[in-house]
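Margin note from the TA: students keep mixing up input and output lines. Inputs are the sequences; the output is the structure of the whole complex. Example:
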Amino acid sequence: MKTTVLESLNQGLMAALKADATVHLLGEDILDPYGGAFKVTRGCSTAFPERVIPTPISEAGLTGVTAGMALRGLRPVLEIMFGDFTTLVADQLINHISKFRWMYNDSVTLPLVIRTPMGGRRGYGPTHSQSLEKLFMGVPGLTVLAPANFSIDTHSPGSLLENSILYTDSPVLFIENKMQYLQPLLTTEILSDFDVELRFDPSDSEEQFPIYCLRIKGAPPATVTISAYGFCGELARQAQSKLAFEEEIFSQLIIPTRLSPFALQPLMESVARTGKCLLVEEGTRSLGWGAEVAALLAETLGDKLKQVKRLAALETPVPAAVSLEKSMLPQQEDIEALLRKMSA
Amino acid sequence: MTLEEEYFRDMLRIRRFEETVLEEFKRGVFSGTTHTSIGQEADAVGVIRQLLPDDVILTNHRCHGHFLAYGGDMRALFAELMGRQTGICGGRGGSQHIHYKNLYSNGVQGGIVPIAVGMALAEKQKKSEAAVVVFIGDGTLGEGVIYEAFNMASLWSAPLLIVVENNHIAQTTPTEYALAGDIRMRFQAFGIPALELDTSNVMEIAGNTFQLMREVHEDYAPRALILNTQRFGPHSKGDDTRSEQVVALLKEKRDPITLMEKQLSSDSVSSIRAEVEQQVKTAFEIALADPVATMEGRP
């Protein structure tokens, strides 16, 4: 049996709870046997009953509670059942949690992690399918992470989560994607067609937040660069592989795990060579992650940037009907179509 | 110095600090905004003087009195309000966002209450025996998140004292325009025993708080203290819509400093007044001469 992203995240949580008695887990419906709406917390309450706290449906208040715990020396982890509900935690995240350290003149730390699943493709409709992480990117003092599907060296979705819980002293919003959960972890064996390089931003001296750079093994130089994160990173990898083998369109794919603050380095190097960049995200297109990365590339690369395209969700709520949802969210075929156009 | 004299001195320090702030604002020494608690000093001193050294305080936009009653340095508070490098938070926080020892404040209404619950739970988990006090006003009773917090505080037996300073006016809105029902019953609905006082007598507030804090510490459970009080100054700087006569009448009846002064000998009153005057003057002058805050070398 292959390990899934879900199992990896679960192992990361368990490892963090085991490693440090100050780690506390809070969330709605997280107790066994249910183990959380998406089962990421399964087994935690059985193994650590004292430190796994089932909560009322009070996302705003709960987020405040974790802030208080973090300010007084614990390492709380909070599960928000659906990423859509992060609107309810926005006041705590933006006006309290992300500000305390700086506005108190660096006299406090807030080691806390808020994990939540975003994303559609399950037919859950307008309020249970969104990708709202763009609302929290660019908030000073807040780190936004998204695990990738890889398990390479010591890095995996679970290790990203575990390290965030145990070693990051500033608040983290950890964005999972529901579609990633049941996907298998990608090891170097599985990725035998790929060269995968792990890069780290110079500001990430502990090498906590890998940036995965993928190209097809033995392929000629890439003519276009793709960047995507979370589940879209996996869609992009499938598209990259298909076009390489079937149409001889060669690209380099950059998958960051830290979305904010965003590290431009490996992406910029790649685009400096290819001149073209496709940015894929599942949130709506305007004023989002892709817009910011495109702006950074344009500012940094000047004339070397020949073309940049964004692929994202349409500017509507996420519909419930399967057919409508498919048209609204970026699909692998959409990535392929754009890659074809850009490499022409 | 007797306890009465100490409390009188502590209240007077808050009063003279804030009067100085309002006066000097007009002269441009301070910028931005500020919220004073003139008239409410007995709440700050009466409550905070009952805390044990490890206890934690969460406070709000109207936090100068709480900071000073907690033993915070007056010069550092002046400096913070003046945007000086030597301020409590180096000028980053200003009047409503300060952290000093176990005291934390924030300027957004309501959000500090669940944070206080989290802190109380953390202290309980660490078996530190510290308790938490959170100060809110009547206006904050309109924020929904506090009821989530009351529920969790009661559900999880958080060692927490919730103090409502009901000054009967939220910015310019009288409480009766904004508040339905009874404040005590809001706590009782969550199983949190609540005591309501209507006094400006600091000793009465002190005695009752002492008892409540003992219960919080011994029972590891939340309590609420509703303090009916009066604010004599504006919400912020010049935004008082009440008539001068109305405010004058409040002062005549409910000034905690005058009330306490009447119980002390005139000799001790005048010596305390002189001491506080000198403290405020010195703190102000030192802060004024302190270097202006700068971003240099600080990310």
